[in-house]
From TrEMBL:
It comes from Vreelandella sulfidaeris. The lineage of its organism: Bacteria, Pseudomonadati, Pseudomonadota, Gammaproteobacteria, Oceanospirillales. Keywords: Membrane, Transmembrane, Transmembrane helix. InterPro entries: MFS_trans_sf. The chain crosses the membrane at residues 43-62, 74-94, 100-121, 133-156, 162-180. This is Major facilitator superfamily (MFS) profile domain-containing protein.
């Protein structure tokens, strides 16, 4: 499996998106409690909105699969994650990061997990259906390892700013997009679910 180019592209997509998610999860207490000054009572509500957005994007994914392939939805999710990460970098660089701007961008980034993960798994299992348990176990192991490494990267920088989080999220989004586009075949424009 590790030598299968296209399969590794799908694993890269999931691993990178989770790395970006874990960068946010690691930084979220600092981000919301210290940087934006939210109360400990409000923090779980603002954080929890991301879970709702992931669930909603799963529903959107199901709807989109009526006219699009899993590979098309996967690429869409990765592209939206990249745009959200670029937005986070821009507002941080311009020093205009506010709760009203940052929260929706993070919601957009994390929400794409609902488009990326199921479509990458589906695409991976197209190649490894005969060893589906092994394939999903490998994907899960790599996914959480990359997530943990991203969390460590954010934690290593003891900078009281958004930069460690947003740059890690941007790096993850770039890796996911590059991995899928370089390692997998492009879906046909007229290819649709049957």
């Amino acid at each position: 499996m590790l030598k299968h180019r296209e399969g590794m592209g799908y694993i890269c997509a999931v691993a990178a998106s989770f790395a970006g998610l874990f960068a946010f999860v690691t930084a979220s207490p600092f981000l919301y409690l210290d940087y934006f000054g939210l109360s400990p009572g409000v923090y779980p509500l603002v954080f929890g909105v991301n879970v709702v957005v992931i669930a909603l994007s799963n529903r959107v994914n199901i709807h989109l699969l009526r006219k699009r392939t899993p590979q098309q939805n996967l690429r869409l999710g990765l592209l939206v994650q990249l745009i959200a990460a670029l937005g986070l970098v821009a507002v941080t660089a311009l020093n205009i990061a506010s709760l009203v701007i940052v929260v929706p961008l993070i919601m957009l980034f994390t929400g794409m997990i609902g488009l990326i993960t199921p479509n990458a798994i589906s695409s991976l299992l197209d190649h490894f259906g005969h060893i589906s348990a092994t394939a999903t176990a490998l994907l899960g192991g790599i996914q959480f390892t990359c997530g943990a490494l991203a969390g460590v990267m954010v934690g290593l920088f003891e900078v009281e700013h958004l930069w460690p989080m947003v740059l890690t999220m941007l790096g993850a989004a770039l890796l996911g997009n590059i991995g899928v586009r370089k390692l997998t075949r492009a879906p046909a424009v007229n290819e649709q679910q049957g």
